[in-house]
Specification:
It is a single chain. This protein has one domain: NADH Oxidase, CATH 3.40.109.10. It is about 40% helix and about 15% strand. The protein has 6 helices and 4 strands; from the N terminus they run H-H-E-H-H-E-H-E-H-E. The chain has a 4-stranded antiparallel sheet with strand order 1-2-4-3. The longest helix is centred in the middle third of the chain and has 24 residues. The two termini are about 30 Å apart. The model has no long low-confidence stretch (mean pLDDT about 95). It binds flavin mononucleotide (FMN). The site of flavin mononucleotide has 7 residues, from strand 3. Flavin mononucleotide binds next to strand 3.
Length: about 190
């Protein structure tokens, strides 16, 4: 696939078939993540979680935070017994950066993690995997012990997660490109 085909062929896929993803494939995807551009030279960390207990804990902790949030929409999502925040994906790729207080640093870290997460979904697409970029399961890392369980340093914030795996859904991506959102100033 060339780059533009990969971009146009990417779609959020939430139907994983449970097949394990090979370690070599995950290594290529992780390298694509940390190869992303990074403002202010800030480091981006990519943590590939395949341990089933850790993946299950992210799902459980996310719903726990949702239920205790006091936000009606989140409480509803957290209480839904059918809701699995990582959609039964066998792999959760956590994208994190050091937690910083200064607004410029925080903004860069968020952007850096978004760039890395996009590289991860594009690499996954190119390698024939299904993926979905998710932020709601980052809520899990507000639960004490979750960072340690998932290999995240205490001084880091998980800004993005990519759930990935194989899928039997091979339907092509349907893109809704809003041409009105594109402008040329010539
Ligand atoms: C920053 C960001 C956060 C997202 N968070 C979630 C999420 O928590 N759960 C989810 O199912 N999808 C999430 N998505 C996926 C979007 O729903 C999806 O990209 C959008 O519907 C467009 O569909 P497409 O990815 O197939 O083009 C997120 C996407 C982005 C970019």
């Amino acid at each position: 696939m060339n780059t533009l085909e990969t971009i146009m062929g990417r779609k959020s896929n939430r139907a994983f078939n449970g097949e394990a993803v090979e370690r070599g494939v995950l290594e290529q995807i992780a390298k694509a993540g940390v190869a992303a551009p990074a403002g202010m030279g800030k480091a981006i960390y990519v943590t590939v979680v395949t341990n089933p207990d850790a993946v299950a804990a992210i799902n459980t902790a996310t719903k726990q935070v949702m239920m205790n949030s006091g936000v009606e929409a989140l409480v509803k999502m957290g209480s839904d017994p059918d809701r699995v925040p990582l959609y039964n994906a066998p792999v959760a790729v956590l994208v994190s950066a050091q937690t910083v207080e200064d607004p410029q640093g925080a903004s860069n870290n968020l952007s850096n993690c978004a760039a890395a997460a996009e590289n991860v979904v594009l690499a996954a697409t190119d390698l024939g995997l299904a993926s979905v970029y998710v932020t709601s399961p980052t809520l899990a890392f507000h639960v004490p012990g979750m960072k340690e369980k998932c290999g995240i340093a205490d001084d880091q914030t998980v800004h993005a997660i990519v759930a990935l795996g194989y899928s039997d859904d091979k339907a092509p991506a349907v893109k809704h490109i809003n041409e009105a959102n594109i402008k040329f100033v010539e």
